[in-house]
Design brief:
Layout (H helix, E strand, L loop, with lengths): L25 H16 L4 E3 L9 E4 L13 E20 L9 E14 L5 E7 L1 H14 L10 H21 L1
Antiparallel strand pairs: 1-2, 2-3, 3-4, 4-5
Bound molecules: zinc ion.
Length: 176
Amino acid sequence: MAVREVIIYPDPILRNKNTEVTTFDEDLKKLTDDMFDTMYEFEGIGLAGPQIAVNKRIVVIDIPDDEGNQHKNQLVIINPKITKLEGDIVESQEGCLSVPGYQDTVTRYQRCTVEYQNLQGEHCVFDNVDGLFAICLQHEIDHLEGKIFVDKLSRLKRERLHKKYAKILKDRQRGE
Ligand SMILES: [Zn+2]
């Protein structure tokens, strides 16, 4: 188990095509263990393969319980496909481990249905889920399509992001 380096926006790795997983073996398990380690290290609730430079269709999610505790609901989601988006369009305040130090409001569907495979390669479904989990699923599956939540911002907001983010990146570099 190991914490991997997180790929930071606007690195083109985040825009690469992500391929389907076809081998469900011990290496895949180790990779997802590293993804959880990395996600917890940087205090995230979800992480997608391209965010650690693995351009494969893999997502891990761990939504905290009511007390804010993680490690109880670890989900490994392989080859996910959104098959239904339903309900109202809701605003969600989002951040991303690949866009450190920046949060903003974007819109998502309230509910979604996602077909996926688990670590054993078995076909499973999250049927019409809602709340933070539904939003997190949409955010992470976007990563597998090379999309980042800041792509959804209006032009005005994106200009603001680029100004603010340039400073964040500079501060990060100085810190290293
Ligand atoms: Zn993200």
